[in-house]
Amino acid sequence: MSNAFRDLLKKVGSGVHTGEDLTRAEAMAAAKMMLLQEATPAQIGAFLIAHRIKRPTGEELAGMLDAYDELGPKLTAIDSALQPIVLGIPYDGRLRTAPISPIIVLLLATVGQPVIMHGSDRMPTKYGVPLIDLWQGLGVDFSKLSLAETQRVFATTGIGFVYLPQHFPQAQTIFDYRDQIGKRPPLATMELIWCPYAEDARIVAGFVHPPTEGMFQGALSLRGISSFTTVKGLEGSCELPRDRTAIVGVFADNTLVEHLHLSARDYDFASKNVPFESTAQTVADMQAILQGKPSELMQTALWNGGFYLWRSGICEDMRSGIAMTEELLTNGKVAQKLQEVSQSLSSTMLAG
């Protein structure tokens, strides 16, 4: 048993009247002791549920990010005129709406915008379809790459995937506790703004509940990251919904510059999301999109692609971004990027 961890547990788990928030240094220490298994299983489980009940502060999230920064993997800079975008997508995946993120990542990489993703396998508490499964369905298996191999694919294609079981096993061990306590702990919030990149990057973080934006702002400010984007997206992802107004927070110099309110109807898209049926069906639909075939999921790809091309500075507005997305999908350029990624991955693995 760790007496030091027990003291931190007592602070967050003492209830409404006597409980206390952790300092940034204490939160970092607690996260490190959990990641390194210096705390006992009983202590870790108690901390995670107590901290969820208490709710995290931005300072505590900053401390947890400090621990991830010290112990976790990082991709390094590549030859690109654009800062990479790091997508903060919930690790426990999607169950209700069909995801489109791999198509958007391929689209951005096609126009020279590097993108970094991070995640794992199916995991608690939702056990929805994760990014890694979708990429595997498209013929790209990032799970087999070492970090050095991931770096080479990232440098070659502009797409990187930090896969926790392979690249950050200390963090992967925490997921068993999530399953056992049956709730998503504050670490799940922190993961949305984790940046496994050694240089400056543009963080785009999905979220569900409005107070989360304030936590993001507090944590990233303490970490010296003052410009980022938040998306109240589908199931907490970075994907814009079609059935409701998409709310996007644009932060610069640690200030909320504006909340964009984007309605799919204003851009001639139907006000409905594509339901998730199965991983196989979603992969088949994405493959059809890459062939330029019209579909409801193609409409979702156009809606999201237009937004990301605009906000990346590739296009001057949403409408031109939507038009460019349609052109790149129908002329086969995005499909070519997928083939390039697949070939890069294969050659990298053969090179060892």
UniProtKB/TrEMBL annotation:
Gene3D superfamilies named among the record's database cross-references: Nucleoside phosphorylase/phosphoribosyltransferase catalytic domain, Transferase, Pyrimidine Nucleoside Phosphorylase, Chain C
Ribosomal protein as UniProt keyword: no
GO cellular component: cytosol
GO function terms (MF aspect): anthranilate phosphoribosyltransferase activity
Top-level taxon of the source organism: Bacteria
Annotated Glycosyl transferase family domain residues: 99-333
Signal peptide span: none
Annotated GO biological process: L-tryptophan biosynthetic process
A UniProt-annotated Pfam family: Glycos_transf_3
Coiled-coil intervals: none
Residue ranges annotated for the Glycosyl transferase family 3 N-terminal domain, each copy included: 6-70
Stored InterPro entries: Anthranilate_Pribosyl_Tfrase, Glycosyl_Trfase_fam3, Glycosyl_Trfase_fam3_N_dom, Glycosyl_Trfase_fam3_N_dom_sf, Nuc_phospho_transferase
Keyword Metal-binding: no
Keywords assigned: Amino-acid biosynthesis, Aromatic amino acid biosynthesis, Glycosyltransferase, Transferase
Official protein name in the record: Anthranilate phosphoribosyltransferase
